[in-house]
Write a structure and sequence with these properties.
The complex is a heterodimer of chains A (328) and B (325). Chain A has 328 residues and is an alpha/beta fold. Chain A has 11 helices and 7 strands. In chain A, the strands form 2 sheets. A 5-stranded parallel beta sheet of chain A has the order 1-2-3-7-6, sandwiched between helices. In chain A, strands 4-5 form a two-stranded antiparallel ribbon. In chain A, helix 1 packs across helix 3 and helix 1 runs antiparallel to helix 10. The model of chain A has no long low-confidence stretch (mean pLDDT 97). Chain B folds into 2 domains: 183 residues, 3-Layer(aba) Sandwich (Rossmann fold), CATH 3.40.50; 129 residues, Rossmann fold (3-Layer(aba) Sandwich). In chain B, helix 1 runs parallel beside helix 6, helix 3 packs parallel to helix 4 and helix 7 packs across helix 11. Chain B starts with a strand and ends with a helix. Classes of the chains: A alpha/beta (328), B alpha/beta (325). At the A-B interface, helix 5 and helix 6 of A face helix 3 and helix 4 of B.
Chain lengths: 328, 325
């Protein structure tokens, strides 16, 4: 489905933002400024941007560990520097530096955050979807998950319950081909993981995850079904992560030439070509977008770098909703 | 007005009355709706509120996961996982999810849910239907573990658990379901995190909850005949524990016997004991003693199970040894 020029330009800018954001995070992770694990979504921008382009602010979003992009796009633009600050472990971070890269959450936009046990949010998402039905709203729940996540038993329980009760859920399986080092073909018998949902009577689609013009209509079909009471859909987005599992993983397990072949399917380049050839957009327009985004993300980084560390004693806060635990 | 109710009926009444006044409360679990629960605790709820009572597949992770997600949206789920041993199948959701949500959301939302679970031994059902699982949970900051000992506590603490904004694992000892006691008709709540001083005394502090409270009371009666005065503390909330109640008591008596049904090693008695020895070393007149089960699985044959679980005479023996030190 062809998108309008305006919409495609907007989503192109979203994808540029994700890539720029990720490359900055990578830089400051590699130089030791950012502590902890970092999982980058470079190469997966079309999937994240396409899904977020369809979801409403009131839809529940469960990003996965490789979802900085979805987190940024779901947020209010004024909060984006604070997302970077969270990843930088700063007091000004969206969550006060308590969670970092994998746990950035923002309930004001229903970014519900990630539980770093694969498969965990796949059952938590049953509850937000249940709440939508219980409260008679048509908000859907979108759960980001990897190909590897489908190996978790919780996925069985979740699809079974969601399908039986027709819960409004989008299972967004981002198939980037590897669970850390193990390729899908060595851990799952299906040619396409999407077909696994057939056993649960859950409608499913295989989607070119690098093409926003394939991602968006598939997500629109799934959300329309869910909002109308038709139950869950499992979407398998075929894509590829350009980096290793975590920043610093050399990804030596990948066969020679594979990364290069996928880079030819770069989601940004694909959209750029379309904008140039089909929509009359000029190279200079794209350069302007890139420059604008670059400056914006540089601003996030400056904010994060200039921010103070959290107060250590804040670590003892919010263990319980009503009582304090002893601080040191 | 009070009347005599069973522990089971007190729990059932708590659910009915709390659901009457808060439409955000719903129940979910295996056999909890149409059948009213394998132990009858949720009886009659589905008939009154068919859209607030949900029977599920055998999917404890999904039950607790759904409860977490719904709780964060402002609902108040009361999930049942039947036997507490089945927490093992949804342990990830309990310890890695429910326990962390308030912290992860900086207090903006939390897993305001109850997981009801039937705990303890004594019904000759062996390994996976008899365990005291509280130590599995008590080392996880963020969880609340509640363990009522009487029908009065069962109703009042369940109401508080439902109203709590924390994830509460509510342990119902199967040996208590048919016990009877006075329960007010009206809706009331009992405070969480507060132990109950069951009996004042001066010579030994006995810490005991759930079915062990009965052992403590019998022992206190028996030892009174010998001129010994036992003080009994019933924790009610095992975690976070009312440390002051125990410390104040032991500061007075100088002797402590902890009675817990589960295995000795790393049981909650171990924590109570080390807490007391850290804070009150100079007050102690005798070594702290624990009365516990053996460090084995719970076997089936009555003679085997009775051998493994702590018995009433063990409590008397421990108290006498402490006094004789």
């Amino acid at each position: 489905m062809a998108l309008s020029k305006e919409r495609l330009v907007k989503i192109y800018e979203d994808m540029v933002l994700i890539r720029r954001f990720e490359l900055e995070v990578e830089k400051y992770s590699k130089n030791g400024t950012i502590p902890g694990f970092i999982h980058l979504g470079v190469g997966q921008e079309a999937t994240q941007a396409g899904i977020l382009a369809v979801l409403r602010k009131t839809d529940y979003k469960f990003p996965d560990h490789r979802s900085h992009g979805a987190i940024v796009l779901s947020s209010d633009p004024k909060d984006r520097p604070r997302i970077m600050a969270e990843i930088f472990a700063k007091k000004t971070g969206l969550n006060g530096g308590r969670g970092g890269s994998m746990h950035v959450n923002d309930l004001t936009v229903r970014n519900m955050g990630f539980n770093a046990i694969e498969g965990s949010v796949v059952v938590t998402g049953l509850g937000t979807a249940f709440a939508s039905v219980y409260n008679h709203t048509d908000d859907v729940t979108a759960i980001f998950m990897g190909d590897g996540t489908l190996g978790e038993g919780a996925c069985h329980e979740s699809l079974n319950m969601a399908a039986t009760w027709k819960l409004p859920i989008l299972y967004c399986v981002v198939n980037n081909q590897y669970a850390i080092s193990t390729p899908v073909s060595e851990s799952h018998p299906q040619k396409q993981l999407a077909t696994w949902a057939d056993g649960y009577c859950v409608p499913n689609e295989v989607v070119d995850g690098n093409d926003v013009e394939a991602v968006i209509p598939a997500v629109e079909r799934a959300t329309a079904r869910a909002r109308a009471g038709g139950g869950p859909t499992l979407l398998e987005f075929m894509t590829y992560r350009w980096q290793g599992h975590f920043s610093g993983d050399p990804a030596a397990y990948r066969p020679a030439g594979e990364l290069e072949r996928w880079k030819e399917k770069d989601p940004l380049k694909l959209t750029e070509r379309r904008l140039l050839s089909e929509h009359g957009v000029r190279e200079t327009d794209l350069e302007q977008i890139q420059a604008r985004v670059e400056a914006e993300v540089a601003g996030y980084v400056q904010f994060a770098l200039a921010s103070p560390d959290p107060d250590p004693a804040d670590a003892a806060k919010h263990v319980y909703a009503d009582i304090e635990v002893e601080a040191r | 007005m009070s009347r005599i109710l069973t522990f089971s009926k007190a729990l059932n009444e708590a659910l009915h009355q709390e659901m009457e006044q808060d439409e955000k409360v719903f129940i979910i679990g295996e056999d909890v709706a149409k059948m009213g629960g394998d132990f009858g605790i949720t009886s009659g709820i589905w008939k009154r509120w068919p859209n607030r009572a949900y029977d599920t597949a055998l999917s404890e992770s999904a039950i607790v996961g759904l409860a977490c997600g719904a709780a964060v949206c402002g609902l108040r789920p009361v999930a049942e996982v039947m036997f507490a041993d089945f927490i093992g199948v949804c342990y990830d959701q309990v310890v890695n999810n429910a326990a962390k949500l308030c912290y992860m959301y900086n207090g903006q939302a939390s897993a305001q849910l109850v997981v009801r679970a039937v705990t303890g031994g004594g019904i000759r059902c062996a390994y996976q239907h008899s365990q005291c699982i509280e130590p599995w949970l008590m080392n996880v900051p963020g969880l609340v573990v509640v363990a009522p000992a009487t029908p009065y506590e069962a109703k009042g603490l369940l109401v508080s658990a439902i109203r709590s904004n924390n994830p509460v694992i509510f342990l119902e000892h199967k040996g208590l379901y048919n016990t009877k006691g006075e329960v007010p008709e009206e809706l009331y709540s009992l405070p969480l995190y507060q132990a109950h001083l069951e009996r004042e005394g001066t010579d030994i502090t006995l810490v005991a909850g759930m079915t062990m409270l009965n052992f403590a009371q019998r022992a206190a009666d028996e030892l009174a005949k010998e001129g010994l005065s036992c003080e009994i503390i019933n924790p009610r909330t095992l975690c976070p524990l009312d440390k002051d109640a125990i410390l104040n008591s032991v500061a007075k008596t100088g002797r402590l016997v902890i009675i817990q049904e589960g295995p000795k090693f790393m049981g909650y008695g171990a924590e109570v004991g080390s807490m007391v020895s850290e804070a009150l070393f100079e007050y102690l007149k005798a070594p702290i003693r624990r009365v516990t089960s053996l460090d084995t699985p719970v076997p089936f044959a009555p003679v085997l199970e009775d051998y493994v679980l702590p018995q009433y005479p063990d409590v008397l023996k421990a108290c006498r040894e402490v006094m004789a030190f």
